[in-house]
């Protein structure tokens, strides 16, 4: 499970995935919410529009200290840091019909 979730998080950080509305719609749960590093709250449609608009300028990122914590039978939380900008990230993934979909994400700036 750790490898699958690591791969899914990497996909969401990949500029090519961020440029694909179809891929984002498939990966983001209908009830998705994000709290951005600025504190702004985004719903699914807002974050899809935001990602599509900024995909071309988004650099590749390196995930470090990736950890997974089970919350229930179909929910897990992942934690990791982005090496390039010192952001600490947390996501909640929900397993539905044998597919993991992200339902929550938060990025918090930290000191490098």
What is this structure, in a nutshell?
The chain has 112 residues and is an alpha+beta fold. It has a single domain (2-109), classed as Nuclear Transport Factor 2, Chain: A (Roll). It contains 4 helices and 6 strands, in the order H-H-H-E-E-H-E-E-E-E.
Describe what you observe in this structure.
The structure is a single chain. The protein has 112 residues and is of the alpha+beta class. The protein has a single domain (2-109), classed as Nuclear Transport Factor 2, Chain: A (Roll), CATH 3.10.450. It has 4 helices and 6 strands. The chain has a 6-stranded mixed sheet. The protein is globular, with a radius of gyration of 13 Å.
Overall structural domain count: 1
Along the chain, the helix and strand elements come as HHHEEHEEEE
Estimated structural class: alpha+beta
* Residues in helix, %: 25-40%
- CATH architectural group: Roll
The total count of strands amounts to: 6
What's the CATH first level?
Alpha Beta
Unreliable parts: none
Strand content: 35-45%
Give the overall shape, derived from the CA principal axes. Answer: globular
CATH fold name: Nuclear Transport Factor 2, Chain: A
Q: What's the mean pLDDT score?
A: 91
Main sheet attributes: strand count, strand direction, barrel closure: 6 strands, mixed
Tell me the number of helical segments per DSSP (H or I, 4 or more residues long): 4
Give the termini distance in whole angstroms: 29 Å
Reconstruct the topology from this structure.
Elements: H1 2-13, H2 15-18, H3 21-27, E1 28-35, E2 41-43, H4 44-54, E3 63-72, E4 75-82, E5 87-96, E6 99-109
Parallel strand pairs: 1-6
Antiparallel strand pairs: 1-2, 3-4, 4-5, 5-6
């Amino acid at each position: 499970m750790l490898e699958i979730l690591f791969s899914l998080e990497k996909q969401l950080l990949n500029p090519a995935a961020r440029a694909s509305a179809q891929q984002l719609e498939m990966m983001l749960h209908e009830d998705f919410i994000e709290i951005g590093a600025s504190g702004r709250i985004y719903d699914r449609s807002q974050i899809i529009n935001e990602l599509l608009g900024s995909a071309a300028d988004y650099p590749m990122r390196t995930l470090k200290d990736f950890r997974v914590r089970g919350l229930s039978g179909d929910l897990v939380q992942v934690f990791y840091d982005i090496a390039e900008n010192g952001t600490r990230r947390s996501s909640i993934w929900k397993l539905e019909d044998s597919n993991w979909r992200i339902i929550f994400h938060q990025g918090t700036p930290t000191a490098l």
